[in-house]
Design goal:
Length: 331
């Protein structure tokens, strides 16, 4: 049943991408009645395609880089870079390791689980998990491309992401110590290694293609929801909320939880809200979404016990809100 469901989801993702490509290539040949193409529909379509087309190149770079890490870098190698002694001081090298991993939030949860299973303390694996989708060079490049006229957002995302990650790791260690938060497995699965018989290059290509089409479903849905959100929501209400130093970051964090794309792409969604929300609100979206969102929550519940996941969500929410609120007061 699970294999059939997975096959159906993959097929749907492929069909969505093929449909988008077909519409893009043959758009001029398609005649749509004016009654159907109202201004709102045109606006939704324009925003949707602009987000999609700007984001896809960075996602392609991200999935190939992620696949290279998946195939060529072992968890044992990472463990040597992360000291297990001095739990609080170890948070900083763990954050630096996360910054070196060009892995988005769609793929980092399994990596964090493998690190814990290999003996990396949970709070350090969590720091890697929350920093990798924000601090890696590909996300920095995509954020710069999306916010070239607002470098405060570009560097603010990196700085606040680092500070929030250190706070999150410290609180996770304070509350859970050296306990293993993973769900005890009743039997061992081997599906993660079903490409082991292929060569390294073929493994990289297969992993990259699998990840691209898996993320593609979320990208298409997220871009569409963002386009609908921007088109039909009351702009005056958005401006009122977004300009509020207290409510703005909270609203954008809630929005990020629901529609956050992969971290290589969500900068383009945030930039489309640039005229409506304050810088601190945009940063709340850009930092919170890659750390925890709806699809990430589902992935974590599959690997971690429920109490840990709920506590983790609360810690991330408090840490990111405090960081962005203070940033808004200072800038």
């Amino acid at each position: 049943m699970n294999s059939l469901r997975s096959l159906g989801q993959d097929t749907l993702g492929i069909l969505l991408f093929l449909g988008i490509i077909a519409l893009f290539l043959a758009g001029d040949l398609i005649s749509i009645p004016d009654e159907v193409m109202s201004s709102s529909v045109v606006n939704v379509t324009t925003i949707f395609l602009s987000i999609l087309l700007e984001a896809i190149p960075f996602i392609l770079i991200g999935v190939f880089a992620s696949a290279v890490i998946q195939v060529f870098v072992s968890e044992n190698m990472l463990r040597k870079w992360i000291p297990k002694r001095y739990p609080y001081l170890a948070l900083f090298p763990a954050a630096m390791v996360g910054a070196l991993l060009p892995v988005c939030e769609c793929a980092i949860v399994p990596v964090a689980r493998r690190l814990i299973k290999k003996g990396v303390p949970a709070h350090l694996a969590i720091v890697v998990m929350v920093t990798a989708p924000i601090l890696n060079p590909i996300v920095l490049a995509s954020t710069y491309y999306a916010f070239q006229n607002n470098m405060t957002v570009v560097w603010g995302r990196m700085i606040l992401g680092f500070i929030a990650a250190i706070l999150i790791g410290a609180f996770v260690y304070k509350l859970f110590g050296k306990r293993n938060p993973l769900i005890k497995e009743k039997h061992t699965h081997h599906h993660e290694h079903h490409h082991a018989s292929h060569g390294k290059i073929m493994q990289t290509i297969v992993h990259a293609s699998d990840e691209f089409f898996d993320m593609g479903k979320y990208l298409v849905i997220g871009a569409f929801v963002a386009a609908v959100f921007q088109t039909y929501l009351d702009r005056e209400l958005l401006v009122g909320i977004g300009s509020d130093a207290v409510a703005g970051p909270a609203v954008m964090m809630a929005f990020a939880y629901i529609v956050s794309l992969c971290s290589e792409a969500d900068a383009f969604v945030a930039s489309s809200f640039g005229s409506l929300f304050t810088t601190s609100s945009l940063l709340a979206f850009l930092v919170y979404g890659p750390m925890i969102d709806f699809k990430n929550t589902l992935l974590m519940l599959a690997y971690f016990n429920k109490r840990f996941v709920l506590t983790f969500i609360a810690i991330v929410t408090i840490a990111v809100y405090i960081c962005t609120f203070i940033f808004g007061m200072l800038v």
